[in-house]
Write a structure and sequence with these properties.
By secondary structure, this protein is mainly alpha-helical. It is built from ten helices and no strands.
């Protein structure tokens, strides 16, 4: 499994590197323009990076099965080994980008503090203490992992059952991603799980519920993918 994960990282790290470079550049340029000619009321990194990243890791998760399963099996890798390696790759991707997001907040906070932009923010800065830094890291990691899990579920549905059934399986496949957004209260659900469900969900509960959805989703992917037929294309 580790060999598969390392192989996937070697194949896909250029995509991650280009995305990270573009992300930092765009956020820096846009944030500077807004700060210079407009009114910066919230963290530019929070708006541009923390949310955008989940779509990249999700899209990468979606292409793994249809793009690489056939190649790896042809080279002697079992389906279980591929799925296990894909899981390690997904965990590593989520962790890596969560660390990138946290590091970005640290650099941005220093810049805002040095230029006086912090005083003009009307929204609380996401990272203001060691505890908030840990919360941001854990939250980003779980949300990214949930989006990867959803992408895997969608992909295995299409790959195993074909286009028509795959389309029908999209709504239940969205549960991990939507659940993470709901519990943590992101842009998919701005009111958050607390107001929508009428529950006072602490951070630990949101993290635990998201983790449960991810584990359940990955178990389903493993169950459906361990004996899936090798297909040339989805029809």
């Amino acid at each position: 499994m580790t060999t598969v994960a390392v192989s996937l990282f070697r194949r896909l790290w250029p995509v991650y590197a280009v995305f990270a470079a573009l992300l930092v550049t765009v956020v820096a340029v846009v944030g500077t323009l807004i700060g210079t000619y407009g009114s910066l009321t919230d963290s530019a990194w929070n708006i541009g990076a923390a949310s955008t990243t989940k779509w990249l890791v999700g899209s990468i998760g979606f292409i793994l099965l249809p793009s690489y399963l056939r190649q790896y099996v042809a080279n002697g890798v079992t389906r279980r080994e591929f799925l296990g390696g894909g899981l390690l790759f997904g965990i590593g991707s989520a962790a890596g980008f969560a660390l990138l997001v946290l590091a970005g907040f640290g650099v941005e906070r220093l810049i805002y503090g040095a230029t006086g932009l912090m005083d003009g923010l009307t929204e609380p800065y996401p990272v203001h203490s060691a505890g908030s830094a840990v919360a941001v890291l854990v939250r980003a990691f779980l949300i990214y992992l949930a989006h990867i899990c959803t992408a895997w579920l969608v992909a295995v549905g299409f790959y195993r059952y074909g286009a028509l059934t795959g389309l029908l399986l999209i709504p239940p496949s969205l549960v991990p991603a939507f659940g993470s957004e709901l519990f943590f209260g992101t842009e998919w659900s701005p009111v958050g799980g607390v107001d929508l469900l009428g529950l006072d969900l602490p951070f630990a509960a949101s993290a635990l519920l998201t983790a449960v959805l991810v584990v359940a989703g990955c178990a389903i992917v493993h169950q459906l993918g361990r004996a899936v037929a090798i297909r040339g294309k989805i029809t």
